[in-house]
Target: ATP-binding cassette domain-containing protein
Amino acid sequence: MLQLDELSLTQDGFTLSLSGGIPAGGRVALLGPSGSGKSTLLSVLAGFDWPDRGRILWHGQDITRAPVAARPVSILFQDGNLFPHLDVADNVALGLRPDLRLTQADRARVEESLAQVGLGGLGARRPATLSGGQQARVALARMLLRDRPLALLDEPFAALDPGLRTEMLALVREIAEAKALTLLMACHDLRDAERLCDRLWLLEDGRKVLDVGLAGLRDDPPAALRAWL
Model:
Protein backbone atom coordinates (compact mmCIF):
# COMPACT_ATOMS: atom_id res chain seq x y z
CA MET A 1 0.00 0.00 0.00
CA LEU A 2 1.09 3.56 -0.75
CA GLN A 3 0.32 5.94 2.10
CA LEU A 4 0.75 9.72 1.94
CA ASP A 5 0.77 11.12 5.45
CA GLU A 6 0.14 14.89 5.61
CA LEU A 7 2.53 15.69 2.76
CA SER A 8 3.33 19.36 2.32
CA LEU A 9 5.67 21.10 -0.10
CA THR A 10 5.92 24.81 -0.90
CA GLN A 11 7.70 25.94 -4.08
CA ASP A 12 7.61 29.35 -5.76
CA GLY A 13 4.54 30.41 -3.82
CA PHE A 14 2.61 27.19 -4.55
CA THR A 15 1.80 24.72 -1.75
CA LEU A 16 0.96 21.06 -2.21
CA SER A 17 -0.77 19.66 0.87
CA LEU A 18 -2.57 16.32 0.98
CA SER A 19 -2.96 12.90 2.54
CA GLY A 20 -4.30 9.67 1.12
CA GLY A 21 -3.78 5.99 0.57
CA ILE A 22 -3.79 3.63 -2.41
CA PRO A 23 -4.04 -0.14 -1.91
CA ALA A 24 -1.55 -2.41 -3.66
CA GLY A 25 -2.69 -2.83 -7.26
CA GLY A 26 -4.91 0.26 -7.12
CA ARG A 27 -4.92 2.70 -10.03
CA VAL A 28 -5.62 6.36 -9.24
CA ALA A 29 -6.17 9.17 -11.73
CA LEU A 30 -5.00 12.63 -10.68
CA LEU A 31 -7.43 15.01 -12.38
CA GLY A 32 -7.24 18.76 -12.22
CA PRO A 33 -6.40 21.93 -14.13
CA SER A 34 -2.86 22.98 -14.95
CA GLY A 35 -1.12 24.17 -11.81
CA SER A 36 -3.29 22.10 -9.46
CA GLY A 37 -0.36 20.01 -8.20
CA LYS A 38 -0.58 16.80 -10.23
CA SER A 39 2.98 16.85 -11.56
CA THR A 40 4.31 18.19 -8.26
CA LEU A 41 2.83 15.22 -6.42
CA LEU A 42 4.36 12.78 -8.90
CA SER A 43 7.72 14.54 -8.54
CA VAL A 44 7.59 14.14 -4.76
CA LEU A 45 6.68 10.47 -5.05
CA ALA A 46 9.52 9.89 -7.52
CA GLY A 47 12.02 11.59 -5.21
CA PHE A 48 12.86 14.52 -7.49
CA ASP A 49 11.55 16.81 -4.74
CA TRP A 50 11.33 16.21 -1.02
CA PRO A 51 8.36 17.42 1.02
CA ASP A 52 8.82 20.06 3.70
CA ARG A 53 6.91 17.80 6.05
CA GLY A 54 4.90 14.59 6.05
CA ARG A 55 5.78 11.04 5.05
CA ILE A 56 5.53 8.66 2.11
CA LEU A 57 5.10 5.04 3.18
CA TRP A 58 5.33 2.05 0.85
CA HIS A 59 4.01 -1.09 2.55
CA GLY A 60 4.84 0.55 5.86
CA GLN A 61 8.41 1.54 4.94
CA ASP A 62 9.23 5.24 5.05
CA ILE A 63 10.64 6.24 1.63
CA THR A 64 10.13 10.01 2.03
CA ARG A 65 13.82 10.78 1.59
CA ALA A 66 14.97 7.65 -0.16
CA PRO A 67 17.22 8.22 -3.21
CA VAL A 68 15.44 8.15 -6.56
CA ALA A 69 17.12 4.91 -7.63
CA ALA A 70 16.17 3.17 -4.38
CA ARG A 71 12.44 3.83 -4.70
CA PRO A 72 9.96 1.21 -5.95
CA VAL A 73 9.03 3.63 -8.74
CA SER A 74 9.06 3.75 -12.52
CA ILE A 75 7.98 6.87 -14.40
CA LEU A 76 6.43 7.57 -17.79
CA PHE A 77 6.64 11.21 -18.87
CA GLN A 78 4.59 13.08 -21.45
CA ASP A 79 7.43 13.46 -23.96
CA GLY A 80 8.77 9.93 -23.52
CA ASN A 81 12.36 11.18 -23.02
CA LEU A 82 13.74 9.15 -25.93
CA PHE A 83 17.30 9.83 -27.06
CA PRO A 84 17.45 10.34 -30.84
CA HIS A 85 21.08 9.17 -31.19
CA LEU A 86 20.29 5.77 -29.63
CA ASP A 87 18.37 2.99 -31.28
CA VAL A 88 15.11 1.72 -29.82
CA ALA A 89 16.73 -1.18 -27.97
CA ASP A 90 19.28 1.06 -26.24
CA ASN A 91 16.59 3.60 -25.33
CA VAL A 92 14.71 0.80 -23.60
CA ALA A 93 17.87 -0.64 -22.05
CA LEU A 94 18.50 2.64 -20.22
CA GLY A 95 15.75 1.56 -17.85
CA LEU A 96 17.87 -1.44 -16.92
CA ARG A 97 21.46 -0.16 -17.10
CA PRO A 98 22.12 3.56 -17.64
CA ASP A 99 25.70 2.78 -18.70
CA LEU A 100 24.35 0.40 -21.41
CA ARG A 101 26.87 -2.28 -20.45
CA LEU A 102 24.47 -5.08 -21.25
CA THR A 103 24.88 -8.80 -20.91
CA GLN A 104 23.25 -11.24 -23.29
CA ALA A 105 20.59 -11.83 -20.65
CA ASP A 106 19.99 -8.07 -20.45
CA ARG A 107 19.52 -7.90 -24.23
CA ALA A 108 17.01 -10.72 -24.01
CA ARG A 109 15.04 -8.80 -21.39
CA VAL A 110 15.02 -5.72 -23.63
CA GLU A 111 13.64 -7.76 -26.53
CA GLU A 112 11.02 -9.29 -24.25
CA SER A 113 9.94 -5.85 -23.07
CA LEU A 114 9.65 -4.59 -26.66
CA ALA A 115 7.61 -7.63 -27.64
CA GLN A 116 5.31 -7.01 -24.68
CA VAL A 117 4.33 -3.61 -26.11
CA GLY A 118 4.05 -4.84 -29.70
CA LEU A 119 7.45 -3.65 -30.97
CA GLY A 120 9.25 -6.96 -31.35
CA GLY A 121 11.91 -6.80 -34.05
CA LEU A 122 12.16 -2.99 -34.08
CA GLY A 123 15.07 -2.66 -31.67
CA ALA A 124 17.53 -1.46 -34.33
CA ARG A 125 15.34 1.45 -35.45
CA ARG A 126 15.92 5.06 -34.36
CA PRO A 127 13.08 6.91 -32.59
CA ALA A 128 12.72 9.41 -35.45
CA THR A 129 11.69 6.59 -37.81
CA LEU A 130 8.77 5.56 -35.59
CA SER A 131 5.25 6.91 -35.39
CA GLY A 132 4.09 8.83 -32.32
CA GLY A 133 2.26 5.78 -31.05
CA GLN A 134 5.32 3.58 -31.50
CA GLN A 135 7.51 6.09 -29.67
CA ALA A 136 5.05 6.02 -26.77
CA ARG A 137 5.36 2.23 -26.74
CA VAL A 138 9.16 2.48 -26.56
CA ALA A 139 8.90 4.70 -23.49
CA LEU A 140 6.40 2.27 -21.96
CA ALA A 141 8.73 -0.67 -22.65
CA ARG A 142 11.54 1.14 -20.82
CA MET A 143 9.27 1.78 -17.84
CA LEU A 144 8.25 -1.89 -17.74
CA LEU A 145 11.85 -3.06 -17.92
CA ARG A 146 12.56 -1.34 -14.61
CA ASP A 147 10.07 -3.80 -13.12
CA ARG A 148 9.06 -1.56 -10.22
CA PRO A 149 5.69 -2.06 -8.48
CA LEU A 150 4.69 1.64 -8.40
CA ALA A 151 4.09 3.31 -11.77
CA LEU A 152 3.82 7.10 -12.12
CA LEU A 153 2.40 8.45 -15.40
CA ASP A 154 2.56 12.19 -16.07
CA GLU A 155 0.10 12.73 -18.93
CA PRO A 156 2.15 10.27 -21.00
CA PHE A 157 -0.12 10.13 -24.06
CA ALA A 158 -1.42 13.71 -24.16
CA ALA A 159 0.30 14.39 -27.50
CA LEU A 160 -1.35 11.43 -29.24
CA ASP A 161 -4.59 11.63 -31.18
CA PRO A 162 -7.68 10.26 -29.37
CA GLY A 163 -7.59 6.87 -31.08
CA LEU A 164 -3.94 6.21 -30.26
CA ARG A 165 -4.40 7.52 -26.73
CA THR A 166 -7.25 5.09 -26.15
CA GLU A 167 -5.12 2.26 -27.55
CA MET A 168 -2.18 3.08 -25.28
CA LEU A 169 -4.35 3.41 -22.18
CA ALA A 170 -5.87 0.00 -22.91
CA LEU A 171 -2.37 -1.48 -23.25
CA VAL A 172 -1.20 0.07 -19.97
CA ARG A 173 -4.32 -1.20 -18.21
CA GLU A 174 -3.73 -4.72 -19.51
CA ILE A 175 -0.11 -4.68 -18.33
CA ALA A 176 -0.95 -3.04 -14.99
CA GLU A 177 -3.55 -5.69 -14.25
CA ALA A 178 -1.22 -8.53 -15.27
CA LYS A 179 1.61 -7.20 -13.09
CA ALA A 180 -0.65 -5.93 -10.26
CA LEU A 181 0.99 -2.50 -10.50
CA THR A 182 0.02 0.32 -8.18
CA LEU A 183 -0.42 3.30 -10.48
CA LEU A 184 -0.99 7.05 -10.41
CA MET A 185 -1.70 8.93 -13.64
CA ALA A 186 -1.94 12.70 -14.02
CA CYS A 187 -4.49 13.66 -16.67
CA HIS A 188 -6.81 16.41 -17.88
CA ASP A 189 -9.53 14.19 -19.34
CA LEU A 190 -12.02 12.23 -17.25
CA ARG A 191 -12.42 9.74 -20.11
CA ASP A 192 -8.73 8.86 -19.90
CA ALA A 193 -9.11 8.33 -16.16
CA GLU A 194 -12.05 5.99 -16.73
CA ARG A 195 -10.16 3.94 -19.31
CA LEU A 196 -7.24 3.13 -17.02
CA CYS A 197 -8.02 3.81 -13.37
CA ASP A 198 -10.44 2.66 -10.71
CA ARG A 199 -10.28 5.73 -8.48
CA LEU A 200 -10.10 9.48 -8.94
CA TRP A 201 -8.40 12.21 -6.93
CA LEU A 202 -9.50 15.68 -8.01
CA LEU A 203 -6.85 18.29 -7.20
CA GLU A 204 -7.35 22.04 -6.93
CA ASP A 205 -4.74 24.55 -5.76
CA GLY A 206 -2.50 21.83 -4.35
CA ARG A 207 -5.23 20.09 -2.36
CA LYS A 208 -7.30 16.97 -2.89
CA VAL A 209 -10.93 18.10 -3.04
CA LEU A 210 -12.43 14.77 -4.12
CA ASP A 211 -11.48 11.12 -3.63
CA VAL A 212 -14.00 8.82 -5.29
CA GLY A 213 -14.32 5.52 -7.14
CA LEU A 214 -14.81 5.78 -10.91
CA ALA A 215 -17.33 2.96 -11.29
CA GLY A 216 -20.76 4.45 -11.93
CA LEU A 217 -19.48 7.95 -11.29
CA ARG A 218 -21.35 9.50 -14.21
CA ASP A 219 -24.69 8.23 -12.89
CA ASP A 220 -24.60 10.64 -9.96
CA PRO A 221 -21.50 12.85 -10.23
CA PRO A 222 -20.41 14.95 -7.24
CA ALA A 223 -20.82 18.69 -7.71
CA ALA A 224 -17.05 19.23 -7.78
CA LEU A 225 -16.75 16.96 -10.82
CA ARG A 226 -19.58 18.24 -12.99
CA ALA A 227 -17.39 20.75 -14.80
CA TRP A 228 -15.28 17.82 -16.06
CA LEU A 229 -18.19 15.88 -17.60
